[in-house]
Amino acid sequence: MTITVLGSAAAEAWPALFCTCAACAEARRRGGRNLRRRTAYRIDRDTLIDFGPDIHWQSHAFGIDLTAIRRILITHSHTDHLDTVELQWRRNGFSRIGEPIELFGNAHVFERIARETRLTLDQLAIVGHLLEPGRDVVTGPYTVTPLRAQHASPDESALNFVLHDGRTGALIGNDTGWWAEETWQQAAGRRLDAAIIECTYLHKDAQHRQGHLGAEAAVAFRDRLVDIEAIRPEARVVVNHFSHNGMTLHEELCDWFAPHGIEVAYDGMTLEL
Ligand SMILES: [Zn+2]
Ligand SMILES: [Zn+2]
Ligand SMILES: [Zn+2]
Asked: Closest-lying ligand to the alpha carbon of 9?
C-alpha cells in the first residue's frame, strides 16, 4: 500500500488565508514543508481519503489524475474534509464523466452533498455507501473498518479508517480526539504497519484530547496503539492535521517528535508499506 499525504493542515490551512499570527508569517517566510494544504490522502492510484477545498491544487502538485479515482472515503462532513462545490462539477453539462465514483461516508456527509448541491447522487455519477462505525466494507482490494472518532460528537459520527489490502494495513486517524474505549477495542490486535495520528493543537495545548489531540496526547495515543497491538512495535507512525494556532513550525516539530520515533507529515509525503 502506498499512502500519499495530500494535505497536512487543519481547517484554515497554514498559512491561514487571512491570518496575521507569527506562525503564519513564519510559514510564508520559510515556505517548503511549512505550506500546508487541507488534510487528505491518496491510497495507491485510485483511492482518496477526504475531498477538501484544496483538491484542485493537490491534484496538480502531486500528479493525481482525478479521472482515475474510483473511490473516495470521507471521514466526516466538516468543510476541510468535504468540499461539495468541487464535487458538483461532476454534474452532467459541466464535466464529461467516465465511470461513476464510489463514495463512502456517514449520514451527515450525504446530507451535506444533497443540501448544498441540490443534486441526487445519480446526477453526480456517485454510487453512495453509508458507513457505520465498526461495520467493515470491502471495496476494490481494501477491507475498510470505519472506527468512531471522538470528534464532532454528539452531532455526528466522525470516522477514522483502518484499511487493509490483504498484505499491509494502516490506520488513518484524523480528526480523532481521544477514542472511547469501544473504539480502542475495535482497533486492538490488528498489528497494522502504519498509523497516521492527528495532532491539531501541537504545543499550544499539548495535552488536549477533546475532539482533537495536542502533541503530548498524540504520543500517548501512539503508545496506547502499541500497547493494545493495534500497530506493530516497528510500525511507521506519522502525525498530521496541524493548526497554525498550534504555532510550531515544521522543522521544530520534527526535532520534537524524532526522539519519540514519530514522523511529521508534510504535503507530498509518501509512505510505502
Ligand atoms: Zn479537520
Ligand atoms: Zn495564523
Ligand atoms: Zn473535523
From this structure: 1
